[in-house]
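README: folding subset

This subset contains proteins for which both the sequence and a predicted structure token string are available. Records are stored as plain text. Below is the entry for Phosphofructokinase, muscle (101 residues), shown exactly as it appears on disk.
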Amino acid sequence: MTHEEHHAAKTLGIGKAIAVLTSGGDAQGMNAAVRAVVRVGIFTGARVFFVHEGYQGLVDGGDNIREATWESVSMMLQLRSPLKVHGKKYNMQYLAKIFYR
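--- output ---
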């Protein structure tokens, strides 16, 4: 990868947001997949959010939506269940502004 391609990859997500939610329950490889999505999203400049409690958490907002950080997924492969991480809380009005620009 050239320097220009590397820089272009790091700016693909600027101004975008990704919501990560799972349906719950154990699934082989889910933690690794969630971790990869978060890290690639952050690397490319996107804001990444965890949505706890599946679609209901997306509807309810509040404590169910938290911003992901690089550190919040650093121990994810050792966790038993995906999205058991901590971060900043957001409400649905705030997220609507981010997701629907």
